[in-house]
Amino acid sequence: MPRRFCLALAGLLLLPALLPAQSGGALDAGLLGKVWSTERFVAKAAPCLRPAELEAELRRLAAAHPELLLGEVGRSVERRPIYRITLGRGAKKVMLWSQMHGDEPSATPALLDLAHYLLSHQEDSEVARLLDQLTLLMVPMLNPDGAEAYTRRNSQGIDINRDALNLATPEGRLLKKLRDEAQPMLGFNLHDQNRRRTVGNSRQLASNAVLAVVGDEEKTLTPGRITAKRAAVAIAAALEPFAPGGLARYDDTFSPRSFGDNLTAWGTPVVLIESGGVPPGASLEELTRLNFLALGATLGELAADGLAGRDPDLYDQIPENNVDVYSDVVLRGGRIRQPHLLEAYRADLAFDRLRGDREAAGCQPPGPPRSTVAELGDARIFGAGEEIDAGGQILFPGFLIGAEGFGARRFLDGPGLEILGKLGVSQVRWVVAPRDLAAAAGFAAKQRGRLRPRVEVSADRAALPIRRLSRRPEPPAGRLLGQLLRSLESACGQPFDHQEAGAVEAALLALWNGKNAAPLRYESVASLLVARTGGGGLAAGSAVSRIFLDGAEVAP
Ligand SMILES: [Zn+2]
User: Fold this and answer.
1) Smallest Cα–Cα separation from 413: which of 449, 438, 437?
2) Secondary structure of the chain: what % helix, strand, coil (to 5)?
3) CA separation for the pair 347, 190 (Å, rounded)
4) Alpha-carbon distance values, 332 to 111, 283, 348 (Å)
5) Which end of the chain is more exposed for a tag (fewer CB within 10 A), N or C?
6) Distance from the CA of 114 to the center of ligand 1, in angstroms?
7) What tens digit of pLDDT does each residue of 92-112 get?
C-alpha cells in the first residue's frame, strides 16, 4: 500500500496516499465514522454538555460497563469534580484529556463515545488487542468551571494551558500529577481552534489541525516525538475520507509555558488535536465524530504495531494551518460606494457571521445576528463559506432613517422593522422625549432580531436623521433601487424626487444622513446592499441583488 503523501493542487492531501493501515476491522476509521451516529454514547452536542451533565453521563457509562474505572481525581477552583475514566489492561499507557479550555468541547463526548464503543465490542479481535495492549486514561473536561461559564480560562482567569510551569491552577497541578503518576508513553491534548482556519494556501477550511508537540526550542526529534509524528500521520489517514484535504498542521513553535510542550519534555510525547471548521453541510457534532474515528483508528494502530506502519516524515508534509484568510461570505469583484466618497472604487468585501457554538448547537437561544467585515480590498487569497460574484455591481451601506416621538412604536414593531429591512434600512434612530427614553429603549430592545434594523434610542433632537418615518412603510413593489426609494418616500411623507437625473444620488445621500453615515469599514458590521448598475453609477433602475442586515441576508 503506498504511504506517501501526494502533494498536488496547493498542498491538498490526496486520498490514495493515506489509506488506513488496516481495513474492515472494528477499528477501521471508515467503519468508526459510519457507526458513530448509531453507537455514540452521548446524545448531546458537545457545546451543550455542562459539567453536571457530563458527570451524569460518566455515571451512566460506568453503570453500563462494570470494567470501566471511573474516579474523581481532583476538583476545580469552584470545587467541581474532575473525573478520569480508565479502560484497558495494557502496559502502554495513553493519556487523553479534553476541554482544558472550557469553550473547546468537541472532543469531550468523543472520549465517552470511544470508551463505550471499545467496551461494547470486546469480542472483536482488534478491540481485544487494543484493550490488552493499552491502558487508556481519559480526563474529559479538565476545566469544568470554564466549561460551565463557557470561557477558555479557568475560574481564576488563568489559561490552564499556559500554567504548566507556574502550576497556579488546581486543574494544571492535577494534569501534571496524573502525568507524573502514570508516566504515559503518549498523550492526546484535545482542543478546538478558530473555526475559520484554512489548510495551507488551499483556501479550504481546516476541520482539524494536528501537532506532534515539540519539547524544546530546537525541536529535537526524540523517539517519543517520532511516535507522536506517526500518530499524527495515522490521524491524517483516518480523517482524509471524512474531511478530504481538511487536515492542517498546527504551528510547532516551542511554547515554553504550555502543557503539551512540557509533557513532551518530561517524557510523555504529546499529540495535539484541534477541532476547527465544520465541513460544508455538517453540524458542529461532526467534529465530535471526527475525534472519535481519528482517536479510535490511531489507538488501534498503536496497539497493533506501535504505529510502525506510519512514516513519520509524512507529518512534515501536512500543510500548515493558515489564519485570517477565510470568511463566511466573500463578495468578489464589486465596487464600493461610500457615503463620504463620490466615486465607487474596486474592492472585494469579506464578512463573518459571529455566532457562538452554544447558539449554533441550539442550547442557547439565538441572539440578534452579529457580524464583522473581515476584509475590504483585495480578498483573492480568501476562502469562503459562500462566494458571491459581485462583478458589475456596487456595494453600499444600509440606510439610516429617523423616527420621532414615543408614538412611533406603532410602526417600529417587529413587522414594521422587517419591512424596513427589506427596504435596505439597517439603522433607525428613534428620538423621544426624555421622559419616554427608558420605555422606548425597553421597547426597542424587545424588537431586536434577525432581518430587522438596529434601533438606537435618543432624547437628542439634534440627532434626528434627515429622513424620518411618519407611518409604517409598505413592502417594496420589487427589488429595483427606485422601488425601495419609493416605499421609503411614502413612509416618510417627504418627496425624494428620485426620478430626476442625479436625484437618486441625492436620495441616497439623504438616506445615509448626509456624508456622516457609517461607511463600510474593516471590522464594521456587515449591513449593506448590492446593486447591478450596468457599469455606471447607482440609478433608479439598478436591481438590488442582495441586502444584508448585520450579516443576515434579507430575502427578496
Ligand atoms: Zn485550546
Assistant:
1) 449
2) 35, 25, 45
3) 39
4) 42, 27, 5
5) N
6) 21
7) 999 999 999 999 999 999 999
Burial label for 57, CB within 10 Å (0-12, 13-18, 19+), is buried
What pLDDT shows up at residue 503?
Answer: 84
Say how many Å lie between the CA of residue 272 and the centre of ligand 1. Answer: 10
Q: What is the whole-number distance in angstroms between the Cα of residue 190 and the centre of ligand 1?
A: 8
Q: What is the mean pLDDT of residues 407-422?
A: 97
Q: Which residue has the cell 423621544?
A: 432
> Cα separation of 81 and 71, whole Å?
10
How far does the centroid of ligand 1 lie from the alpha carbon of residue 249, in Å? 15
The pLDDT score that the predictor gives to residue 337 is 96
In order, the DSSP letters of 94-141 are EEEEE-SSTT--THHHHHHHHHHHHHH-TTSHHHHHHHHHEEEEEE--
Q: Find the 239 Cα to ligand 1 centroid distance in Å.
A: 20
Contacts of 60 (CB under 8 A, 6+ apart): none
What is the CA(512)–ligand 1 centre distance, in A? 42
- Contact at 8 Å (CB) between 90 and 132? yes
What DSSP string runs through 152-190?
Answer: SS-TTS--GGG-TTT--SHHHHHHHHHHHHH--SEEEEE
The pLDDT score that the predictor gives to residue 11 is 41
pLDDT range class, residue 518, cuts 50, 70, 90: confident
β-bridge pairing 383-389 and 326-332 = parallel
CA of 260 to the centre of ligand 1 (A): 11
What is the per-residue pLDDT across 436-456, written as a single tens digit (0 to 9) for each? 999 999 999 999 999 999 999
Q: What is the pLDDT of residues 471-497, one digit of tens each?
A: 999 999 999 999 999 999 999 987 776
Say which residue the cell 452521548 belongs to.
Answer: 42
| Cα 439 to middle of ligand 1, angstroms | 43
The amino acid at residue 85 is: I
CA of 287 to the centre of ligand 1 (A): 15
Of 301, 303, 295, nearest in space to 88 by CA: 303
Distance 91 CA to ligand 1 centre (A): 29
Strand partners, 258: none
Which residues are CB-contacts of 119 (< 8 A; sequence separation ≥ 6)? 64, 65, 67, 68, 87
C-alpha 253 to ligand 1 mean position (Å): 15
> For residue 315, what is its C-alpha cell?
507529518
> What cell does 208 get?
482539524
Residue-averaged pLDDT of the chain: 93
How confident is the model at residue 516, as a pLDDT? 72
Closest residue by Cα to residue 222 from 273, 162, 270? 270
